[in-house]
Design a protein that fits this description.
The chain is an all-alpha fold. The two termini are 13 Å apart. Helices cover 73% and strands 0% of the residues. It contains 19 helices and no strands.
């Protein structure tokens, strides 16, 4: 319970110290240390065995060539798995911090929301976390909207995919400008695609199977153990809708209340980008009908939408819906998501059962 109290303290104080750099670094340090020293959490034993196996000089591509390479470096540096894990957590969180800082100075409330959800489950799933941390960091290059920027983004997606192949999904983010110019058409097409996939699952199976190993495809596409419940499907579908509505409202409000041409290009691009990717994320719902695991593809969208609210705070002073209301809604929904879908993580990490 002491650990839970510490996390609650970080969340509350973070909402009041929005631009305090030292507190922000404290948040990161606490996340790194507390997750790094936790050995009872899911996957610790399995990844520790993989780490030791690679350290013995074996090539182990089953967890991704990129992860094998990182484990190899950790072993060469003489790190234990616990030390290696903390180094990876620190690197990933600093990459995420770099992106947050790039778009806004109001950082700590974003971290408070992130600590509520989905930080705990992200950091426990260490390999997935490192993959999405690279993706979030790569978005800075994508939004430069240059040929070089797109190239760097694609290369980083490939690197992230070598650490966890679910990162390949985010290659679709390169189509953000096409989507934002054709919002209604895109939503219609994705909705129709969603319906077709529900009616004929084999279409989606053939697409998804191109990105995973045979073992993973068998586990996620043909295994009925982890199919989402109706309530989980409804919640995360509504979350996707919430992201879309929020991004649309924020983009429209900023445009109406400011001289649009005077807003920096990177922030204008972000307003367009987040709406586009929230719309593209509709396809995650169809993927999740095979396994609840696919809903984790939505997790980076939480922190990306938190950044969107920060931009809203900077440019809209008297919006119909205040930033505080949106932040409160996200905090409540994060608590619901954590308690309702991550009960095992709560038990493993905090030792509580809800």
């Amino acid at each position: 319970m002491i650990l839970l109290g510490l996390f609650i303290f970080l969340v509350i104080v973070g909402f009041f110290l929005r631009e305090n750099v030292f507190f922000n670094l404290l948040e990161i340090l606490v996340l790194v240390v507390t997750v790094g020293i936790s050995i009872n959490i899911a996957d610790f034993a399995a990844y520790n065995s993989v780490y030791q196996y690679i350290g013995a000089g074996n090539f182990y591509p089953n967890t991704g060539v990129g992860w094998w390479f990182l484990c190899k470096l950790g072993n060469m540096a003489g790190m234990t798995y616990g030390q290696f894990k903390m180094a990876i957590l620190l690197l990933g969180l600093l990459l995420i911090r770099s992106t947050i800082k790039y778009f806004t100075s109001n950082q700590n409330y974003i971290w408070s929301l992130y600590i509520i959800y989905p930080a705990i489950t992200d950091l426990i799933q260490i390999r997935f976390f490192m993959g999405i941390a690279i993706i979030i960091w790569a978005i800075k290059y994508l939004l430069r909207d240059t040929t070089k920027g797109y190239f760097i983004y694609c290369m980083l997606v490939i690197i992230a995919g070598q650490i966890h192949n679910s990162a390949y999904f985010y290659i679709f983010f390169i189509f953000w400008k096409i989507v934002i110019k054709n919002i209604r058409v895109t939503i219609t097409m994705l909705t129709v695609f969603l319906g077709i996939c529900f009616a004929e699952k084999s279409i989606l199976v053939n697409i998804i199977s191109q990105f995973g190993t045979g073992q993973e495809n068998e586990f996620y596409l043909n295994n009925t153990l982890y199919q989402p419940t109706v309530s989980q499907t409804i919640f995360f579908s509504l979350m996707n809708a919430m992201f879309i509505v929020s991004a649309f409202y924020i983009r429209k409000s900023v445009i109406l209340e400011n001289q649009y041409d005077l807003i920096p290009k990177v922030e204008k691009n972000y307003l367009d980008f987040i709406l586009a990717v929230d719309i593209m994320a509709i396809v995650i719902i169809s993927m999740a009908m095979f396994s609840f695991t696919f809903f984790r593809l939505q997790k980076p969208l939480w922190i990306l939408n938190f950044i969107d609210v920060a931009i809203y705070m900077a440019y809209v002073k008297k919006g119909k819906v205040s930033p505080g209301i949106i932040i409160t809604i996200y905090a409540i929904l994060g608590i619901i998501a954590l308690i309702g879908t991550e009960n095992l993580a709560l038990h493993d990490f905090f030792g509580i059962q809800i």
